[in-house]
Specification:
- This protein is mostly helical and 168 residues long.
- It has two domains: 43 residues, no CATH class; 92 residues.
Amino acid sequence: MSNPLIRPNDPRFQKPSIVDAAGQNRFAEGQESGEAGGEGGVGDAFAAGASVGERPYQPRYEVTQQSRGGVLLTIAGLGMVGAVIGIVALLGIFPMGYFATMISVVPAATAWLLAYQDLKTMQLGAMDDSGRQRTLLAYWLGLFGLLACVGIVGTMIWREMNLLPDLF
């Protein structure tokens, strides 16, 4: 040690123990007559989490929102129609399809995001679960339509930049 006046295990520099001679915590609150000191006693602050397998609070919702799977499926279908028009426009059959594909990005993304939110709401129990299959179908159609429309628009831009040879 650097200080010659400090000896190892010097009692002046030892941390005081929190346990007294009887083995009791010196800083614990005193037990009142109503507290048994056992598990789940009156003063036990952690009694709610003591039961195994049960959560202390599980919210229960009254279903107030109806499923909108049909509407979402219609919106996702609009996105898919735009993707099909874009594929036809890429083949040169319908040259004015570029605009429809760019517009179809909006309904495809809307269907995908709204279906995602509805699926989360159904999982929580705040939305009617009867339209889960249609909502799930709208989720995947919206995602596929969004990716297809973005890919087609990117391909259209790439072709118009004359970086690819004219194949069609």
